[in-house]
Amino acid sequence: MTKRIGSESKTVPAKLRWKRTLQALTLISFLVLAGCWDRIEVNDLAIILATGVDTRGDQVEMTAQIFIPRKSGGGMGGSSSGETSSSGVTMIRTAVGSNVAEAMNRLQRKVSRNVFWGHCEVIVISEQASKQGLHQYLDFFLRFTQIREHAYVFSTDKKARDILALLPPLERSSAESLREMGNLKLGTHVTVLNLAQSIEGPSRSAVLSRMLILAPTSGQSKFISDPYVKGLSLIKGDHYVKTVTEPMSVGVLMLLNQLNNIIMPIDLDGNEGAVSIRLISMRTTLTPRIANNEWSMMIKVDAKGEVVLNTTTRSITDPHKNTMVEEQWKKKLTELAENALKLSQKQLKTDFFGFSIQFRRHYPRKWKSQKENWDATFENMKVDVRVDTLITSTGKSTDPQGVPGQSVH
Amino acid sequence: MEPINNKADCKEQFTPNLATNHALLQEVLGDNADIIFHGFHTGNHLSALCVYCSSLCDTERLERQLLSPMLGDDFSSKSDADTASFKSEGYNSSASNTGLHVPMSSIQNVCTIDQAIHAILNGQALLLLEEQPIGRAYSLPKSTSRAVEEPTAESTVRGPREGFTENLSVNLSLLRKRMKTPSLKLISSTQGQYTNTEIVLAYVEGIIDPALIKEVQSRLRKLKLKGVMESYYIEKGIADAQYSPFPQMISTERPDVVAANLLEGRFALIIDGTPFSLVAPVSIFSMLQSPEDYYENRYMSLFVRWLRYIFAVISVMLPSAYVAITTYHQEMIPTVLLLSISRAREEIPFPALVEAMIMEIAFEALREAGVRLPKQVGAAVSIVGALIIGQAATSAGIVSAPMVIIVALTGIASFMIPRYAAGIVSRLLRFPIMILAGTLGLVGMMLGVIVIVIHLSSLRSFGMSYLSPFAPASAQGVNKVQRCHDVEEHVN
User: Fold this and answer.
1) DSSP per-residue string spanning A122-147
2) What is the pLDDT of residues B128-175, one digit of tens each?
3) Cis peptide before B210 (omega within 30 of 0)
4) In terms of domains, do A154 and A298 share one?
5) Could you tell me the residue range of the domain that residue A21 belongs to?
6) Among B190, B275, B356, B391, which is most buried by a count of CB atoms within 10 Å?
7) Record: contact A119-B330, CB cut-off 8 A
8) DSSP 3-state percent helix, strand, coil across chain A (nearest 5)
9) Mutate which of B335, B350, B449, B451 to disrupt the A interface (most A C-beta within 10 Å)?
10) B201 with B78, same domain?
């Protein structure tokens, strides 16, 4: 090629000729590297908002929630918002395959536009599917370039497909409801990346929020409803093992340092009624210790709360009584933590709370030598739970309100 | 003064014979309706000839101040002595020549035909006397300039309201009023074979680099133009890179801007017949400066200046970025925004690039139409444009609403560039970058940016780097560009 050019233009000096050839090649390479043929207009995209993974027999059933970009904000539109899902802005498509990739490929054949996973921010995996091992899904989610690794992962004991089929009345789509709930930190806050890391890490376990479907208002279509958070799904290795619900789930979240947004009723000794405390902040720190070759863990919980309800007849403005409420709350939290620990250490024998990560961080050499015996070590590990509670405020009122004859005194 | 005329005999000197002189002038100027040859006899019966251009000379003053004293009786007695001395000392003695007892101060001796013609066409009245091979040119200009008005292209809220006019002497007076110093030098020259336009090079001695002045003068000398209608004729001729779309000189109609720039070591070219003066050397940051940056609170000025920088980038890149991201990199858009965009784009028949092109071209057309039309009709154009583009096109589903927003924002951004010449560049560069973005995505867009940056960094304005003080970097310079108020610096 260059020879031919050379023979044609002998008058041009060799250096200049090279320069020209290089310039031409550079320009051509720009055309080859990327170009109009890679262009996809927004109109040609089927934007996937959420993905669901279920099983059918030994096959994988994949469900995609696809955004329908029709102008739904017309207002005048239709009064036919009855049971037809015409008001919805999402639809679902399901495909079955021997693995996720195949299912995804078959999914594309059922959609007339380019399936685009770049905005899939929610992944729902049914407990049924996670029983068979999360490894195959996680590898796909983290390998396939389009899927975001910060997509939230949720678990459900129903079919994931049913959750994605919901058309929530409040949010645009059930994907958005799920995402907002993830942001609200109602359960655990787990992304694909977190999930993979915690399964791959020394603790070899994970905790996922478990979603259920709210029963629709009577007379409404069964699709017009919301998903909601109830309990946690515990993953050991990459398999689902157990579901925990309140009060156990509260203890688990507490030890995971992910407890948020909770109001706890506290019974006071020798009193009818209870005091409810809204959690303002909670910090859980794990401190590992190896002394005389004995491995132990110190869990310190700092909780701050405010009183939102006092159904007893006692005023809690008195600091002394306030301390009593704090003591009771402390007792309750300690009990929750210990139950969760028992579940983790004795029943499931799984390090959900990342003790192993702490040991590896603080005692890297000892951890290396004792890695093989970790399961036994963990099961018999001595764990101290120390809870510090503080009531920062007793709310707007001082004395109990609405007690008959109260102001007579 | 360079002799410019196509007739070979023009360098010829005047002869003592008045009739010959008359014939010589008649030969060159004869066919012009506005050139008056007025022959008469003075009070002491000398033949005289007065030649002037009636369209440029103030005829009333000519008659009152020149002709009537010469025709008067008292002229004879005085002028006898004059004529005597004139004859004995010859035309080298200018002291006695000017002593013709004419109540005027601006009198020039003219020896050649060529000088005479030049003087006449500049509005001077030429007086030739019998037996004298020398003429006198009296400056009697007719004032035809408009009043000094507020500059329309560069308005400020705070600051002087005077703007240059088409009249050079008015412009010079505006400048001189601001700089009452002998250091301000105003060097005159002419340009244009047929227009003989006067150009004044202004600079402040002691501040400006003398080499720069030499360079400008040599460039001006090399320039050969047929005519100069506007300052761009000169700018185009003496700029460093004549094929660059970027302006390498500021054109301004504000005397305060010229004065401030002179104080910073720049020079200015004030050109007769146009209110726009040229200032150089400049960098791209001068294009993004408004005089008001120096007239208002410094923090506000700094904020506005940075806003301008940001919007200058927006005005070039925004449509391209939108096209590139929505057609190649959808994952970069926040989810909720993408959903809105996809909903808006659902019924649009064109690809994003075509859509952007349609809108940008329509916008440019509207702007051009609005500028060219008379003011009353211009308003109608903007109404029609806003209605058609903003409303009808979106509701008909031809253009999506986000695109309208993008184009509107781009339009506003390009209006934010205070120098019109620089604003035009941003409008022009937008299109190739948009095509690159539409065909190659963000890679193409960056390619376009790289090409522009390479061009800018190789560009020089009278030896000064166009990206200075950032490239080549100078901490002091950067500081100066960013500190809007360097009044203190002027003082020392």
Assistant:
1) EEEEEHHHHHT-SHHHHHHHHHSTTS
2) 888 888 888 888 888 777 888 888 888 888 889 999 999 898 999 999
3) no
4) no
5) 2-29
6) B356
7) yes
8) 35, 30, 35
9) B335
10) no
